[in-house]
């Protein structure tokens, strides 16, 4: 059915399934047998994450094609309403003692069925890889893999996204090294090279013996120092690329930004859309991309991933202010009607596409964002409804509000960067079909889901996070509110 393009999926195929690669199953069984004191206990053994139905189908299609078979790259899309109706019919029949296999299987396909492997990880030391494909580079059970096989260097590995990526790579069985000015919580066995990406000696040393480099070092827009943006984001990237090539690195994946597009003339934005940054951060990120393409011209295998605005557990910065207001019942604001469609990407989904890009031979350019997004107003209304604190979404006149944000930032009264007042009222979203087709990537999180998860993390950890701790990433602390505290008081009912 999959090969002929006749496999049925409900909606976008976003229902998720836990599955287990046979190597992971063997690992789990062996650990359960060899771990003392766990007799009589029951454990779920599955891959590290559940897969969407669409992702499963596309992966099977890719494997069939790789085996030389003709594949129709299509799925039979069934409205979600039909799936709900079939589920109800199945429950009704089974309530009367009737089991109809086709109806039951079809009804189950509309559900997310995911196993919790926390107990196996904590009590057995189990770690499941994230790909069902047998790949010696990430599979700790393949002879010659694990530490000493594939070594990944993560620059900026102590930052918000870098730390998450390090955790994922280490869980996949890779030997991981971090290059960063600061240290952070690292999994056991992860090496730290402490230094500045602008330093030629330390960068070259960090690249020694590495197979793949994931470059995430960047000065964020709030830095507001154009020289720093240039020397870190551009010169640092160029120095890293040259060091990687000199060290014989096989692959580099550079994390760029959607800021390279400024305000797009039309949506969706494709990888082929001409970049037109509107502020210093976007210009620096685009210049870093040019350095990547120059390295490709010198023979280095480099891929670029451009994420939309990142959300996820632990993501703070300017979002920390938003969540602080909502948690205290203060109203939050959109500019104008708030009907501008705005796409986000979850940090976990971003890590997934970055890792997939690292496993793909040959240069590539990939845009990353969720495939389930909505307007800015709808996104904020969803998290306000989720919080149930009395906060509401209100509108401000777009142009005067943008001028006010610009003025407040210029006077040092508010933590806004140019990208905020330029883009907050504008529509922007990526087309991601190329990433699906070339990498088999499927985002798991919708705008509303990632906002809810990010907010819940903030509430659970509010007492332990502070404002503008310069020893950690801007994205892992709450931006200093300044004069916005007064606005918050006025917006609190």
Description:
- The chain is α/β, with parallel strands linked by helices and 493 residues long.
- The protein has 17 helices and 17 strands.
- A seven-stranded parallel sheet has the order 7-6-5-8-9-10-15, sandwiched between helices.
- Helix 6 links the parallel strand 5 (151-155) and strand 6 (175-180).
- It starts with 7 loop residues before the first strand and ends with a helix.
Radius of gyration: 24 Å
Which strand order spans the largest sheet, edge to edge or round the barrel? 7-6-5-8-9-10-15
Structural class: alpha/beta
Are there runs of 5+ residues with pLDDT below 50, and where? 130-149, 468-473
Please write out the topology.
Layout: E1 8-10, E2 16-17, H1 22-34, E3 51-52, H2 53-66, E4 76-78, H3 80-95, H4 101-108, H5 118-124, E5 151-155, H6 160-171, E6 175-180, E7 191-194, H7 200-207, E8 212-215, H8 226-246, E9 251-255, H9 280-297, E10 302-307, E11 309-311, H10 318-327, E12 332-335, E13 341-342, E14 344-346, H11 347-359, E15 364-368, E16 374-375, H12 376-387, E17 393-396, H13 398-410, H14 418-423, H15 433-439, H16 447-461, H17 484-491
Parallel strand pairs: 1-4, 5-6, 5-8, 6-7, 8-9, 9-10, 10-15, 11-14, 12-17
Antiparallel strand pairs: 2-3, 13-16
Quick description:
This protein is an alpha/beta fold and 493 residues long. It contains 17 helices and 17 strands.
Feature tags:
493 residues; alpha/beta; 17 helices; 17 strands; 41% helix
């Amino acid at each position: 059915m999959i090969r002929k393009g006749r496999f049925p999926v409900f909606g976008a195929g976003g229902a998720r399934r836990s599955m287990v690669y046979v190597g992971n199953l063997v690992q789990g069984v062996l650990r359960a047998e060899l771990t003392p004191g766990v007799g009589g206990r029951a454990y779920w053994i599955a891959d590290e994450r559940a897969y969407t139905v669409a992702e499963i189908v596309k992966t099977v299609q890719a494997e069939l094609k790789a085996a030389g078979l003709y594949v129709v790259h299509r799925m039979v899309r069934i409205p979600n309403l039909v799936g709900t109706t079939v589920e109800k019919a199945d429950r009704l029949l089974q309530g009367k003692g009737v089991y109809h296999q086709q109806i039951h299987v079809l009804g189950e396909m509309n559900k997310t069925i995911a196993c919790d492997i926390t107990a196996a990880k904590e009590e057995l030391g189990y770690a499941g890889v994230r790909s069902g494909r047998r790949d010696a580079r990430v599979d700790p059970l393949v002879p010659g893999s694990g530490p000493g096989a594939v070594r990944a260097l993560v620059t900026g590995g102590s930052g918000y996204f870098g730390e998450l990526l390090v955790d994922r790579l280490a869980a996949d069985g890779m030997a991981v090294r971090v290059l960063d000015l600061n240290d952070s919580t690292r999994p056991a066995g992860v090496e730290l090279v402490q230094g500045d990406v602008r330093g030629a000696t330390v960068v070259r040393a960090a690249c020694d013996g590495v197979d793949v480099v994931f470059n995430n070092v960047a000065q964020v827009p709030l830095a507001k120092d154009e020289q720093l943006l240039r020397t870190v984001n551009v010169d640092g990237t160029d120095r890293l690329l040259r060091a990687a090539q000199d060290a014989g690195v096989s692959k580099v994946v550079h994390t760029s930004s959607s800021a390279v597009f400024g305000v797009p003339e039309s949506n969706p934005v494709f990888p082929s859309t001409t970049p037109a940054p509107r502020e210093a951060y976007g210009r620096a990120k685009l210049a870093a991309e040019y350095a990547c393409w120059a390295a490709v011209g010198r023979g280095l295998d480099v891929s670029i991933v451009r994420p939309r605005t990142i959300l996820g557990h632990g993501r703070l910065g300017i979002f920390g202010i938003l969540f602080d207001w909502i948690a205290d019942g203060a109203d939050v604001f959109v500019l104008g009607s708030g009907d501008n469609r705005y796409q986000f990407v979850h940090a976990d989904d971003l890590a997934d596409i970055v890792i997939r890009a690292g496993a793909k031979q040959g240069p590539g350019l990939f845009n990353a964002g969720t495939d389930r997004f909505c307007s800015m107003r709808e996104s904020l209304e969803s998290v306000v409804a989720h919080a149930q604190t009395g906060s509401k979404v209100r509108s401000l006149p777009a142009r005067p509000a943008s001028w006010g944000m610009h003025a407040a930032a210029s006077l040092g009264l508010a933590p806004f960067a140019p990208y905020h007042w330029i883009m907050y009222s504008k529509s922007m979203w990526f087309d991601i079909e190329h990433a699906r087709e070339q990498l088999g990537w499927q985002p798991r999180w919708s705008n509303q889901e990632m906002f809810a998860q990010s907010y819940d993390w903030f509430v659970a950890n509010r007492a332990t996070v502070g404002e503008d701790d310069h020893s950690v990433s801007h994205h892992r602390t709450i931006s200093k509110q300044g004069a916005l505290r007064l606005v918050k008081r006025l917006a609190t009912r």
